[in-house]
Amino acid sequence: MKHTKISIIGAGAVGSTIAYALILKNIAAEICLVDVNEIKRCGEILDLSDALSFGATALIHGETAKNAGKSDIIIIAAGKRQEPGQDRIALLDANKKIIKSILQEIQPINKESIIIMVTNPVDILTLYAQELVNHPRSQLFGSGTFLDTQRLRGLLSQKIHIAEQSIHAYILGEHGDTQFPAWSCARIAGIPLQDFSLTENDLERIARETRDKASEIIKCKGATFYGIATCVAALCRTIIFDQKRVTPVSCYLEQYDLCMSVPVVLGKNGVDSILQLPLNKREKEQLNQSAEAIRKYIAS
């Protein structure tokens, strides 16, 4: 396996925890942290370096934004964080300016690099980034509803007492208020989810708790970072080892002319293909509503 360089732009709670998750996953790579606050970045690197001897990660160090553009994987996690009671969309104006500045600073970008957007509102900022740089759309995508999907599977697992790894269910659309579970496509060992004694009230509660979990975490501790960091580390592993895993990410959908989450086949080249789930009529309407909400945010 070739040497892999992963640059994380933004060494705050999310960025530094992504670096830690990469180390814990024993991903043999060079990890670079980029942040405008050089003292904070230095402290994170010193702290994280103490964990290197317990894993396969070769090196962690600081780097300039320009050098980060040469990396194999570029993770953009910089930006204003969501405050208690605040909607992700409220971050848009401030974080657009930050993303624009970052994308200017990392030029020229390695044409083979994979860029993973984490900064919220991730769907809008993923599209914004695609419009700002001359980079294949398949190689620039957002973390989207990957974490929401893991939350959904975790709640289902608690209810039906089956390991979440055996549950195939997805959250689609916006990483936000209009996201929804594709219940009609949910399966366990090929068996439809509705065959597992879940009531309509159960499904509504699980969907609501999935959607609201981030807000609840922020209300309690001010920020979310463990779950999203682990998801991003999993995305990196999928890319590095060309695993062709089916994963919901925020990607460009030509029929909507915007980015939102659907399942894709992910590998070393980024999004290899976009999978079309056989949604029922209500779910198709929900996906359209999610697209319309994102479109309104873009136009505002």
Question: What does this protein structure show overall?
Answer:
With 300 residues, the chain is of the alpha/beta class. It has helices at residues 13-24, 38-49, 65-68, 92-105, 122-132, 146-160, 200-221, 226-240, 281-299; strands at 5-9, 30-34, 59-62, 73-76, 114-117, 140-142, 167-168, 171-172, 180-181, 187-188, 191-192, 245-253, 258-267, 270-274. The strands form four sheets. It has a six-stranded parallel beta sheet, sandwiched between helices. Strands 7-10-11 form a three-stranded antiparallel beta sheet, covered by helices on one side. It starts with a strand and ends with a helix.
How are the SSEs placed, and which strands pair?
Blueprint: E1 5-9, H1 13-24, E2 30-34, H2 38-49, E3 59-62, H3 65-68, E4 73-76, H4 92-105, E5 114-117, H5 122-132, E6 140-142, H6 146-160, E7 167-168, E8 171-172, E9 180-181, E10 187-188, E11 191-192, H7 200-221, H8 226-240, E12 245-253, E13 258-267, E14 270-274, H9 281-299
Parallel strand pairs: 1-2, 1-4, 2-3, 4-5, 5-6
Antiparallel strand pairs: 7-10, 8-9, 10-11, 12-13, 13-14
CATH C-level class of the largest domain: Alpha Beta
Please count the helical segments: 9
Uncertain runs: none
Q: How much is the radius of gyration in Å? A: 19 Å
Strand order of the largest sheet: 3-2-1-4-5-6
Round the mean pLDDT to the nearest integer and report it. 95
**Helix coverage percent of residues?**
40-55%
Distance between the ends: 46 Å
Structural class: alpha/beta
- Per CATH, the architecture of the largest domain is Alpha-Beta Complex
